[in-house]
Amino acid sequence: MKTREQLLEFIEKQKAAFVASVDEDGFPNMKAMFVPRKIEGNCFYFTTNTSSLRAQQYRNNPKASIYFYNKGRFRYEGLMLTGTMEVLQDAASRREIWRTGDTMYYRQGVDDPDYCVLKFTATGGRHYCDLKSESFVWEELK
């Protein structure tokens, strides 16, 4: 099994993240998003619209997963993390994750009411590489 540091290095090299929520009928909903803006311990921070379907689904059911992958010429590697997602709208969280170019999506700037932060807290996951898969508990990774 890879170490926590190796998994985080893998995540930081990716160009996209796939984020899953659970809808009102209990079905998983998947969406491609930009990679996390910040990673701190087992917490991964994304941005989205407060009015988005995904934000609404996380408020109703915080169960979530995120997935990263790299498809090379001869090698495929994938990492799924499971945990919970919180929708953060406090000023401190919004300012910490904000980037100058975000005004393209949130015209009113960092205080735009349609701008929020998604905080994913990983509890476990599954890693696939070189034709083998391994499940893990985040806190047990070295």
Task: Give a topology summary.
Elements (H helix, E strand, L loop, with lengths): L3 H9 L4 E6 L5 E6 L4 E3 L2 E7 L3 H8 L2 E9 L4 E13 L2 H7 L17 E15 L2 E6 L5
Antiparallel strand pairs: 1-2, 1-5, 3-4, 4-7, 5-6, 6-7, 7-8
What does this structure look like?
The chain is α+β, with helices and mostly antiparallel strands and 142 residues long. The protein contains three helices and eight strands. It has helices spanning 4-12, 53-60, 91-97, and strands spanning 17-22, 28-33, 38-40, 43-49, 63-71, 76-88, 115-129, 132-137. Strands 1, 2, 3, 4, 5, 6, 7 and 8 form an eight-stranded antiparallel beta sheet that branches. The chain starts with a helix and ends in a 5-residue tail after the last strand.
Give the fraction of residues assigned to helices. 10-25%
Instruction: Bin the strand percentage.
Output: over 45%
From the N-terminal CA to the C-terminal CA, the straight-line distance is: 9 Å
As a whole number of angstroms, the C-alpha radius of gyration is 16 Å
Structural class: alpha+beta
Shape, principal axes of CA atoms: globular
Low-confidence stretches: none
Number of helices: 3
